[in-house]
Amino acid sequence: MEELKGRYRAFMEAHVYPNEAALSREDDAAAALVSELRAQAKAEGLWAPHLPPEAGGTGQGFLVYAHLNEEIGRTVWGQLVFNCQAPDAGNGEILHMFGTAEQKERFLAPLVAGDTRSFFSMTEPEVSGADPTGLRTTARLDGGEWVIDGHKWFSSGAEDAGFGIVMAVTEPDADRHRRMSQIIVPADAPGITIEPVPVMGHRGRGWSTHCEVTYSGVRVPAENLLGERGDGFLIAQKRLGPGRIHHVMRWLGQMQRAFELMCRRALEREAFGGPLAEKQTVQNWIADSAADIQACRLLTLEAAHKIDRGDEARVEISLVKFFAARVLNEVIDRAIQVHGGLGLTDRTPLAAMWAMARGGRIYDGPDEVHRMVVSRRILKDFADGGTYRFS
Ligand SMILES: Cc1cc2nc3c(=O)[nH]c(=O)nc-3n(C[C@H](O)[C@H](O)[C@H](O)COP(=O)(O)OP(=O)(O)OC[C@H]3O[C@@H](n4cnc5c(N)ncnc54)[C@H](O)[C@@H]3O)c2cc1C
Fold first, then answer.
1. Ligand 1: which of 91, 123, 151, 240 to mutate, judged by most atoms within 8 Å of the beta carbon?
2. Any alpha helices (H) in the chain, and if so which ranges?
């Protein structure tokens, strides 16, 4: 594992960090550079480490991926270079788990090969995304085809994608967790419109845009249903659970990098007769950040270990999702404070990291919902006359 981690680190140092500024311009030259770096990563066998070899990746389980993703996540470009970025990573996982042989050949294979990109279209502007049981987009069967009508937004990456996976109500009379199904839709199907929505921290073109998508009488073959009718919510849970851990693994890289920048700057910068590192407030920030980052790391590794053992690790995932999102924001904020005005410029990666970090408290479930999940689970055990213990 250490050897593999070292290979990712060496690749990042040789090819990704030196190109960060060029990639951040997100122009045509940056797009060409992304393609070049992806080809190189693939040639070196550092490709799709979130997926097992039978799905076309180089993965060795969640725990190993947690270690690798901390390296990859140190720059926002890392996951794109190694083809393990959201939402493709989660889409690849559910296509591998629930797709038919034909769906795997048509959609999963080109996705893993890096020949296409995808989007996941669940959230809608008109109803709460935190409680997706109220979604309104519908799909009805007509002459062997699904006909989809609805309005989504935050369909990340849709502008650049070849296909999307759409959550739609197919069983309007069923229980609220059984009303929806997931359907694979080519991005160029007639009746789809895709409009990027500018989002804080995501300046983007195709690969990092968040899009408003309308579906007006969009027709796709009945065989594009992913899994069974009514399984949409279940598949979403299977996707979002590991997906949340993917995010936290990447955030660990961001936290660690911000922390290193903070420590170096504290030692170099002098004010009021000595280095910032000698001011107690700065020492407290360093100590608190070290403790918080290590707590996030251990919570993440524990959740990854449980997932590898076949456990859904719902409490662990929710716990680390809201805790790490807070730590991520706090550590980057402290690092910026230690850098003073420099921290707000583009001469360090901190300002861009800070702008992107804020979304972590909202996407894949806001903090409050994850706190609710954790506390409900704990209180249930007490209400049943027992006590809650982490196993
Ligand atoms: C950068 C980014 C990328 C995204 N990518 C995708 C994507 O690819 N595909 C996709 O489908 N969606 C995506 N989303 C959407 C995201 O998952 C939703 O924004 C999120 O689930 C919250 O839904 P909402 O925005 O509708 O907020 P709402 O549901 O309206 O909630 C608003 C606020 O209400 C509060 N709240 C909600 N429930 C509770 C509660 N039980 N207790 C206390 N307070 C509560 C929270 O503070 C919450 O922030 C993305 C979002 C962002 C920011």
1. 123
2. 2-11, 20-24, 28-43, 62-72, 78-81, 88-98, 101-103, 109-113, 232-268, 280-308, 314-339, 350-357, 367-383
